[in-house]
Write a structure and sequence with these properties.
321 residues; 5 helices; six-stranded antiparallel sheet; alpha+beta; 27% strand
Length: 321
């Protein structure tokens, strides 16, 4: 009995030591692994964007489900001032691969047709499904509408990889997922690759009335006397702009905030672009501008609008800190 207890104690101590070592190694490598993944995504984004891109912005959007991590979307512009949209680079995910999930970095033109893609992660069968990364297969997607790509067996135009139809379908699904994420970022209806609608991760925003990520729009809310607007690096969905007068002195900032609230007719999402003075206090001369048109009846929604507006203002303020 004494020997058994000693053996149990020894095994317990060994297990505890192994667990401690694993925890230390995990903590030591976790940040490095995350940094390498980010670097890989950034490099892939530059590789798949249209050739006409001269400047790039990154934006974060919610994941496909409430518990998903945020997604980084890259927006490319054809000019250094970032006024001419040239395309997007966005991660696309499918969980329908033969060997598990497939992650792609998908390059899209402004009309959502495919430029190209790079594989970020896939566990497909060597020699068969792994051919999803070959130039010949990737080329089959060029100029195809991303939201509706399908293999020929499903009525589409993509010729599947030999003996790897499941992988080919999953690639189509990941490309379509990338288009869905761009639609969600811009407030459009989310649909899956079959064309059947599915519920978005949060209440729909409706359509965007204008693009608040351009300097021209930012100037419309910046304090009077502002001559130029320059985008600042930030973590928000839209960039923060710093306004300066003709002498180069900072006049204020323009930031976009999103607010949600619930009213009698349902959940409301409101996006506003606000102007702030040089001290980062709200400036209502000129007044803020509503960016989106919510797809909801506004009758009896006054309180919800007020709450969503206040939440949007606080969201914009948080991006100036």
């Amino acid at each position: 009995m004494k020997k058994i207890l000693q053996l149990i104690l020894s095994l317990t101590l060994i297990s505890a030591v192994c667990a401690a070592v694993l925890a230390i190694v995990n903590n030591a490598t976790k940040e490095r692994i995350a940094n390498l993944a980010t670097l890989k995504a950034n490099n892939a984004a530059r590789a798949v964007l249209p050739a006409s891109v001269k400047a790039i912005d990154s934006r974060t959007i919610p994941g496909d489900a409430p518990d998903d991590a945020e997604i980084t979307v890259f927006v490319g512009y054809a000019d250094d001032a970032k006024t001419q949209l040239a395309g997007y680079a966005v991660p696309g995910l499918s969980k329908k691969g033969y060997g598990g999930a497939i992650q792609l970095m998908v390059g899209l033109n402004p009309d959502r047709t495919v430029v190209t893609y790079q594989v970020l992660a896939a566990g497909e069968t060597p020699g068969l499904g792994s051919n999803l990364s070959t130039p010949a297969f990737i080329a089959r997607f060029k100029d195809q509408p991303a939201a509706s790509v399908k293999v020929t067996k499903d009525g589409g135009k993509i010729e599947a990889l030999t003996s790897a139809t499941i992988t080919s379908r999953a690639v189509c699904d990941a490309v379509a997922n990338a288009a869905q994420r761009i639609d969600r970022m811009e407030g459009k209806t989310v649909s899956d690759s079959t064309g059947e609608g599915r519920a978005p991760a949060r209440p729909p925003e409706g359509k965007l009335l204008f693009d608040p990520s351009t300097p021209q729009e930012a100037l419309k809310v910046l304090p009077k006397g502002t001559a130029t607007a320059t985008a600042l690096p930030g973590k928000g969905r839209f960039p923060v702009f710093e306004g300066k007068d003709a002498a180069g002195k900072t006049t204020g900032y323009a930031a976009v905030g999103t607010g949600t609230a619930t009213g009698p007719n349902g959940d409301l999402v409101i996006i506003y672009q606000f102007g702030f003075n040089a001290k980062r206090a709200p400036s209502f001369n000129p007044p803020p501008r509503m960016v989106n048109q919510p797809p909801i009846e506004m009758t009896d929604m006054e309180n919800a609008q007020r709450m969503a507006y206040n939440a949007a203002l606080q969201d914009a303020l948080s991006q100036l800190r």
